[in-house]
Amino acid sequence: MERMEGREKGTTRRHTFFCINKERHTASSKVIDAQRKEINVFGRQVRGWIVTTEEPVIDKDISLDESTHRAMPHRDPE
């Protein structure tokens, strides 16, 4: 069996949200799509953006032995 302990792989996660200040909410992310949108909030029209961003995340493969017999290492953020 291949030893997988400590192996990490990179992946991305997409988020779609509504905001009124596009520059503030997308400064640290890669913007995939941004469309102007006007929505109704409690009877009031609000102009803003529907934004989809993509952010990198790291997934760590945890071996069966590590997850069932040993305590999780303190370096694991989860």
Across the major sheet, the strand order is 1-3-2
What structural class do the secondary elements suggest? mainly beta
- Identify the overall geometry: elongated
Question: Number of domains in the coordinates?
Answer: 1
Helix content: 10-25%
Distance between the termini: 26 Å
Number of helices: 2
Q: H/E series, N to C?
A: EHEEH
Mean pLDDT: 79
Summarize the biggest pleated sheet: 3 strands, antiparallel
pLDDT < 50 runs, ≥5 residues: none
Sheet-strand content, in percent, reads over 45%
Instruction: Give the total of beta strands.
Output: 3
In angstroms, what is the radius of gyration? 20 Å
Structure description:
- There is one protein chain.
- With 78 residues, the chain is mainly beta.
- The protein has one domain.
- The chain has a 3-stranded antiparallel β-sheet with strand order 1-3-2.
- A hairpin with a 2-residue loop joins strand 2 and strand 3.
- It is elongated and about 55 Å long.
- The model has no long low-confidence stretch (mean pLDDT 79).
